Fold:
Amino acid sequence: MRVREPVVAGQFYESDSHLCRQAMDALVTYTDQSGLSAKKLYGGLVPHAGWSYSGSVAAGVFATLAQSFAPDVIVLFGGVHRSSVDIAAMFSDGKWETPLGPVPMDARLAERILGQTNLVADDAFAHEKEHSIEVQMPFIASLFPYARVVPIMVTPGPKAEAVGEAIGRTLTAYDYNAMIVGTTDLTHYGPNYGFVPEGVGGEGNRWARQVNDRRFIDLVQEMRSDCVVDEAQKHKNACSSGAVAATVAAVKKIGATSALVLSQTSSAEVVVSAGGGEPSDSVGYVGMVFA
Structure:
């Protein structure tokens, strides 16, 4: 059996099981209670930074989805930060270890997806150092203990939308009780990221959140899976636009018609709200659900 061991536990989230559980419980306690869980939900979009920065945003999405329904399988679309892959890369079978217990893969669904499209490859090696999917796994282990997962890294290229469409068709054809979750962070702004079109500090950080991030979020709310990759490449407002394109395309195939924002923030806002000074760098985060 393939086993994917954690590689960013102790950095992005707690590696100790007790401390991880405490952190999880604290994050889920402060989730949005807007009543969206009463709607028919198909999936969500979450950030993938360290939990101290974006964990509350991700927790709000996962908790809202968990209150809506209990899926048999979760298709999890992630970014490509450290690997070099030409096409979408799937981790097809085995399990992912987390401090809160293992998360099993859905090998049967993975096999069906691979049989339906040549846009996805079975490439467990590509997942070895990728953090965007890993930081979601403890949420899944805790809030969806009976679900299996199919993790897929999606490159931000012209075929990302088609990847999502193919997987949405597979889920529909085999009548899966499925949830689809994608992950991206938004604008990486500041000197450390080499992106300072509106200056360094508060004014630039606010522009990144209020203007540049909103450009990308608006396209997701319009369900424009055909536009998000180009948008991110032109305006540097998402690091995993391929995952977003695939997510939006897939949820549309299984019935979603709208995208709703639960929360939006940035690492700069988190630092300032915690009593720190205005940082020179900032990364944007958004939590959304698809209905």
User: Anything to note?
Assistant: DSSP finds ten helices and twelve strands in the chain.
